[in-house]
Structures are given as C-alpha cells and as structure tokens.
C-alpha cells in the first residue's frame, strides 16, 4: 500500500461517496523530492488542487508551461504516485489496489504523438494492446473487427493497420493514440495537450474529432492545454492553474467574458484577436518579473510577486477558491 493510501486509511477517508460527478478530485498534491546540495527539498508541482467533472463533460485546464497541468493528469491515472489528497471515480476512491481495473475506464492521450507510440509495433497491435490486456474479445476475428471500427472512428484507413508509427504524419499518429485510448471504451480521458505538437490546420480536425467522439460515446475529458482559444472552443468549464494551484474555475463562456483573477485577465489579454480593429483597441496586460521557482515558493498566494494588486494579506495566506456566483470560483483576496 502506498503512503497516500495509508494516510487516507488512517484519517478515515471514505472508500465510497455519493456524488453526481464522474470525477471528483480533493486536495490533490504531487511533490517531487529534489536534491539541493546536501538537502532534499520537495518540488510542489501540484499543491492542493480540487475539482470535479460530470459524465460527458469537458473541463479545460490551462496555465503557462511548468504550472503542473500535465502532472495533474498523470497523477490522476497514477502514472505518478500522489503525495496527498483523494481522487474519486464514479464515487469510488482510486487507490493502488483498484487502479488496474479502474484504468479500463480512464485513459490518456499523450502530448507527443512521436514518443508515445512503440516504433516496433504495427498500428493494429498498438490499438489492440489495451484490448489484449483486458481480454475484450473472443477471438482474433473479433479483435480485428474492433480495431477496424476504431480506426474508422478516428479517420484512419484499413490499409494503415499493417504500417508502423514512423510512416505517419503527426496528426495521423495522434489519431492512432486516440484510437488506442478508445479501445477499452473508457468513460474518462485525460487529453494532455493533444494538439500542441500538430500543425494549426490539423489541430482543428483533431479537436472536431474529440467533439464527435464525445457526442457519440458520452466520454468525459480533462483537456489540458495552454491555448485558450482551443480550450474555450472544446470545454464546458475551464480551470486556470498557476504554480501548482488552481486560481479560477468557471463556465467557459463566463470565464472568457468575465474573468476575475489577475492571472486569468493577463492570460486572456494575450490571446490573439483576428479582427485588426478590435486588436488595436485591446489592452495587453503584461506581467512583471519571472515565475518563481516551485522549489522556493513565495509565502501566501504564489501569484503575488507578479500581481499589481498584491497586499500584505496576499503574503500571509493563500486565498481559498470562493464562489462569486453561478459556480464561478476564484482564489483571490483583492478581486
């Protein structure tokens, strides 16, 4: 049993809860021990993150590089062992003991379509591997038919089945990765920047495919990205992350039209505007200073060292996410 599972058991954390959410994350922490000279200091990649996702819903997770977005997704699926917190899937606490059967319902599409596929396996074997692990077919004929259906779903041709990953473009490789994730018919998929490595023309095709799959299968997504235009297009709700902490969560349109947290305001001001006239009159909020090191986090709110509204209270205590109306959650003392 892992340390976090022992801690949850010791604290009497319930194994099952009544919830309308498919995914419920409570106070998730992921610290990586890092050597600094003779000392070992925890690098707080994810520090007390909480959110929920309903069945068939898409939660977009945005923030600049290094803020801990990818670590959240990998920790949920136990690719990293969590340091603390709880993750409930369908009301059941996910632990080291039950992660294998539950992983059939939770899958991941990785950021890099070049390194996430085995170069020695054919496309048919890559897509079929999850089905082999969970014995999801009666015979080889049924396996082949299921793989062909999956390839058709993601826009690949039948003749692609016998080829290897290096023979495909980036967009096609990402489609193979998506087909592999769908092979076990999951209810929840972590999409870790699935279009950031693709050409802009291919990005739209892959995003539309994600939406079609969701309409057809009712799958829920945690969609991790740093492109706010892409996230706004695909997400029902958006969570904004800064240095391991969530600073704002709201409905996608609400966040886009009425951002509250100073960091969210800055992110949205940097989004390119296609209309030259509107762009000319828009005001860009440029943040001062550099992102603090996660090894030496500032006290209180981690954003205060770059925030024009920072007060003494911001240095003393990290604000909690509070509801500002209609589920618009913000962690800020000033705004």
Task: Please give a structural write-up.
The protein is 33% helix and 22% strand. Strand 1 (23-36) and strand 2 form a beta hairpin. It is an alpha/beta fold and 335 residues long. Strands 6-7-8-3-9-10-12-11 form an eight-stranded mixed beta sheet, with helices on both faces. The chain starts with a helix and ends in a 5-residue tail after the last strand. Helix 4 packs across helix 5, helix 4 runs parallel beside helix 6 and helix 5 packs across helix 6.
In summary, what is this structure?
This protein is 33% helix and 22% strand. It has helices spanning 3-10, 69-76, 99-102, 123-134, 140-153, 170-182, 200-217, 228-234, 252-257, 262-269, 276-281, 312-316, and strands spanning 23-36, 39-53, 58-62, 84-89, 92-93, 106-109, 188-192, 220-224, 237-242, 245-251, 322-323, 329-330. The chain is of the alpha/beta class and 335 residues long.
Specify Rg, calculated over alpha carbons.
21 Å
What is the 3D form? globular
Q: Uncertain spans, ≥5 residues at pLDDT below 50?
A: none
End-to-end span in angstroms? 43 Å
> How are the strands of the largest sheet arranged?
6-7-8-3-9-10-12-11
Strand content: 15-25%
Q: Average pLDDT across residues?
A: 91
Question: H/E order of the elements?
Answer: HEEEHEEHEHHHEHEHEEHHHHEE
Tally of DSSP β-strands: 12
Count of DSSP-assigned helices: 12
Structural class: alpha/beta
Helix content: 25-40%
In this structure, how is the largest beta sheet organized? 8 strands, mixed
């Amino acid at each position: 049993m892992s340390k976090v599972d022992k801690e949850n058991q010791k604290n009497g954390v319930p194994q099952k809860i009544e919830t309308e959410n498919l995914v419920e994350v409570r106070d998730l922490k992921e610290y990586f021990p890092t050597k600094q000279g003779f000392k070992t200091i925890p690098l707080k990649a994810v520090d007390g993150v909480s959110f929920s996702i309903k069945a068939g819903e898409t939660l977009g997770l945005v923030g600049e590089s290094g803020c801990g977005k990818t670590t959240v997704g990998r920790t949920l699926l136990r690719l990293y062992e969590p340091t603390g917190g709880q993750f409930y899937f369908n009301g059941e606490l996910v632990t080291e003991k039950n992660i294998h059967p539950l992983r059939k319902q939770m899958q991941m599409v990785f950021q890099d379509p070049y390194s996430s596929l085995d170069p020695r396996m054919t496309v048919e074997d890559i897509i079929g591997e999850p089905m082999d692990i969970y014995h999801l077919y009666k015979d080889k004929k049924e396996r082949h038919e299921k793989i062909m259906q999956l390839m058709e779903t993601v826009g690949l041709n039948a003749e692609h089945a016998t080829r290897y990953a290096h023979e495909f473009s980036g967009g096609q490789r990402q489609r193979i990765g998506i087909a592999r994730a769908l092979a076990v018919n999951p209810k929840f998929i972590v999409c870790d920047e699935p279009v950031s490595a693709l050409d802009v023309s291919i990005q739209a095709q892959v995003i539309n495919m994600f939406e079609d799959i969701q309409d057809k299968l009712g799958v829920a997504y945690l969609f991790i990205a740093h492109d706010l235009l892409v996230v706004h297009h695909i997400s029902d709700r958006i969570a904004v992350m800064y240095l391991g902490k969530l600073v704002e969560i709201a409905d996608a349109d609400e966040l886009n039209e009425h951002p509250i947290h100073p960091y969210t305001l800055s992110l949205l001001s940097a989004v390119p505007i296609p209309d030259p006239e509107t762009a000319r009159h828009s005001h860009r909020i440029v943040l001062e200073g550099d992102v603090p090191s996660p090894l030496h986090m500032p006290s209180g709110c981690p954003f205060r060292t770059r925030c024009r509204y920072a007060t003494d209270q911001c240095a003393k205590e990290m604000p909690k996410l509070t509801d500002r109306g209609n589920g618009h959650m913000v962690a800020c003392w000033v705004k």
